[in-house]
Amino acid sequence: MKPFEYLRPSDVSEAVAALAANPEAQVLAGGTNLVDLMKYDVTHPGAVIDINRLPLKEIEQLEDGTFRIGALVSNSIAAYHAGIAGELPLLSSAILAGASPQLRNAATCGGNLLQRTRCYYFYDASTPCNKREPGSGCGAVGGVNRIHAILGASQHCIATHPSDMCVALAALDTVVDVAGPTGDRQIPFLDFHRLPGDHPERDNTLQQGEIVTAIRVSGGHFKRHHSYLKLRDRLSYAFALVSVAAALDIGEDGTILDIRVALGGVAHKPWRDPLAETECAGQPANRDTFQALATRLLAGARGQGDNDFKIEMARRAIVRALEQAAAGTPQIQSHKAIF
Amino acid sequence: MDTSSRVIGFPVSRIDGPLKVTGTAPYAAEHEAPDGLLHGFVTVATIASGRIAEIDLTEAETFPGVVKIYTHQNRPRTAWWDKAWKDEVALPGHPLRPLENDRILFDGQPVALVIGTSFEAARDAASLIRMTYHEDEPHTDLRFEQDQSYVPKEKRSGISPPPKPRGDADRAFSQSPYQISADYFQEGEHHNPMELFASTVIYGEDGSLTIHDKTQGSQNVQSYIASVFELKPDKVRVLNKFVGGAFGSGLRPKHQVFLSVMAALDLKRSVKLELSRREMFYLTWRPATVQTVSMAADDEGHLTAIMHHAVQATSLYEDYQEVVVNWSGLAYRCDNVKLTYELTELNVSTPGDMRAPGAATGVFALESVIDELSYEVGIDPLDMRIRNFVHIDQNMDKQLTSKALHACYREGAERFGWASRSPAPRSMRDGRDLVGWGMATGVWEASLMQSTAKVKLERNGHVTVSAAASDIGTGTYTILAQVGADSFGIGAEQVTVAIGDSSLPKSPVEGGSWTAASSGSAVQVAATTVRQTLLKHARDLPNSPLKDASVEQTAIRDGRLVLAVNDQAGVAIADIMDAAGVDFIEELGEVGPDQAQMKTFISYTHSAAFVEVKVDEELGVIRVTRVVSAIAAGRILNPKTARSQILGGVVMGIGMALHEEGMFDHRTGRIMNHNLAEYHVPAHADIHDIEVIFVEEHDDKASPLGVKGLGEIGIVGVAAAVANAIYHATGTRFRHLPITIDKLYYAQEAAE
């Protein structure tokens, strides 16, 4: 860890100004990821802007039913919020599938969007990594890569986004509220994270000086048919090898009115294909439909060697999660048996 | 003597428990020094093979708070001969001398030590050291390098090499109707106890050193430090009052104690050095192992031949060795046996002992093969084992001091409900899940080591027992209190236990499951001697009611030495001591192996592990839903701490079966998952019902106390029982540990 300047602004404009003024500044919220990265010598912020005093800790339900979750609301508070648990159970479930109770108590919802990859090479500052040090190369290509991406990777980076919460947010209708030096704006969630391409050092589309202030989520029509299914190397407290956020709205005749599938652990961002989903509308909510959708979602999937199994794993997980959702029996995160 | 014990055999809670749960038990890195502390941070090599080319300390040395940076270029002089560097449990070869020269033999090798006025200063400065290397091609892949294997020239002390072949295994194998021959591989496992390796070295005004060290043997570290730095032994005192788990990782002195003492002596200051979690991956580890086992049986399932070959990884500088294959020659009756064991040198740090070293590894393969063979023959896996029961050690041609393994099989099977098992693979289901029931036998050696202990009885009846033993979380404090209390008719909480200090009576390192038997028996011997001295004084009293009593006929009740049959006849301890003119009676007890008995007898602990798994085959998710572990380990001093030992062993066995592996990037020879986020051990959700059964086993030869030890046996066989259960559930044999989720996909793909 290197010495750094520490700032503790008390309002959003002050925080934005501080962040905009120093290209080496980074924002500290729950600290569950940033502090590790600093200790491991992975990132060296010149200034740490502690935003914990900012008034971003409220959850409110807007008139149209949308939940507006402040960036500093802890993962635990969001997951157990009665309104969210009742109306957006997929989001609650995904949050509870991640980390441990202690981490969820400390981690914030804004920070969850901004957590960095768990790639071994990113975390080990003595190895090449284009995300950590642009131009240094990618250690994971041809290296130990069983946890790496099967979709949307580039020759420069095969890292994945590690969040569970974001997979549910990608499946639901989500917008990210952002404050920046040129004013406030809203970023549709699917545009928030980016694929690595030629710039794997950039995880998202935030501009210099911008801060996430809230997340707006809706999707109450999925509350009967949803499931968050996470497959990993042990039954709890491990990052996803593959996770699936599945949501369905099924008509009285058993056909699909609306369907959402987002994948975690497989790409640089939560993976979704809205076009493929649209084409499922009107089809029966059954295994054949789900398998066809899985095949389509994974059409471009490519393994890196150690992680070849993830393609088949993702295919099966998509189908199972959709079956769980269709049956109205979502995966329960406190009980690790899968039905 | 009064043997109606009120404390031995009872589930006494840990006497050190309150200190631990309130966070007031100080561990090695939690001590201060009167003159304040300097803090160290170690820089490690980032290549696995080569030489240091250049070291640039410009930025690091000028960093605020840096006191001194040590590398091989300025390391103070130390003892010259290898012999001086060999600790009590050292291996054949050249012990690592940290910062000795520019050669890099493994990833994570210490290459610099920064001493600063604070931990943060040392750590931050360490990140500014610029080190460049001449890199050679590393060799870290055992499966690729195993054709370079060799039989170790020098045997490791305390380790039995494989016995000479008996019968003609090759011929018997080829002539048998049922044969299995299979290869097994397991990745290296890395020690990760809660407490990291740390030393606080307090530099005395007279140049003496008081060292709080994370170790399993205070006297081992004390003699190592005295020898390496050529100090008078009485100038070095090592303390390890509390140890936050060790499992074998702390048997040998680690480089943090060498480096912190080196700096303390050089700077004449007190120094603290705690290694990082990451560095746990470059220390003592359970080596990657390749095994081939061939086993054959006749039509009745009697074993006709066993051949077991193992190749293990070791470092370039020491020949670490384990007993891996010998178990195959002693677990079952078989007259045609061939066992071989070799090593392969890799660019890795020297492996070391990790809970049931060798047995956890070898018995995994053995118990997988016999299970597979039982299906071939067509008999129940448990019956197969019972059918091949042996009551002697055929390797050594010795009798066993006891072997209540039949009781383990019987009671374990009954509790598990084994009789209702459906024999065919894939024949049991629970909803979507396939259900599998598997079992395995476990075996570990029971040793009695040369050990001493002191017992002191004070005028007020207070008892203190002391020995340089260690409590690495195993319950040593508590059981020694129980043994001491038992002799004086008091409760365990009334006994003061002093351990974890090199100045106390000579004890071996805490390992090999021998502490309860060895230190416990030494306490008992010392206590008996105290009782004899007390009785001698009592007999000298005028009109002594104990005049004609032998020590066996007496008891201590409520602070009085009395006749066991009539506690009205007796004298207060205080009166006895007053009359003798003493304030206390203190005696030394010593125990050691009975060489005459060892010519004909050998001692092992045994177990039977029964495991239920549920497998979601489509998704590849395995859950270990039930374990019953039945243990035969002689006398159980404390069922509560004993149960904890076995629970921990079973959990670690599940981790070995399903989770734990160091992942090497063989291109660079570096371990990539060097943290607890990516190196997986079981989480709570992975552990379900575990039932522990201690079967009755009377053994009057294993140790004077009748104790055999429990530290290791809990893990042995568990990985095989899990793998066997997975076979029963899925019909697929997994021979490569850990059985991670990807392997289920690849197995299905291979089957298609």
TrEMBL record, chain A:
Residues covered by the FAD-binding PCMH-type domain: 1-222
Superkingdom assignment: Bacteria
Gene3D superfamilies per the UniProt record, alphabetical: 3.30.465.10, CO dehydrogenase flavoprotein, C-terminal domain, Uridine Diphospho-n-acetylenolpyruvylglucosamine Reductase, domain 2
Keywords on record: FAD, Flavoprotein
PROSITE patterns membership: FAD_PCMH (PS51387)
Entry-linked SUPFAM superfamilies: CO dehydrogenase flavoprotein C-terminal domain-like (SSF55447), FAD-binding/transporter-associated domain-like (SSF56176)
This protein's name: Xanthine dehydrogenase family protein subunit M
Organism: Rhizobium oryzicola
UniProtKB/TrEMBL annotation, chain B:
Disordered as annotated region, ranges: 139-172
Origin: domain of life: Bacteria
Membrane spanning stretches: none
SMART domains for the chain: Ald_Xan_dh_C (SM01008)
Biased segments, Basic and acidic residues type: 139-157
Gene3D superfamilies the UniProt entry points to: Aldehyde oxidase/xanthine dehydrogenase, a/b hammerhead (3.90.1170.50), Aldehyde oxidase/xanthine dehydrogenase, molybdopterin binding domain (3.30.365.10)
Domain Aldehyde oxidase/xanthine dehydrogenase a/b hammerhead: 22-137
Protein name: Xanthine dehydrogenase family protein molybdopterin-binding subunit
Organism, as annotated: Rhizobium oryzicola
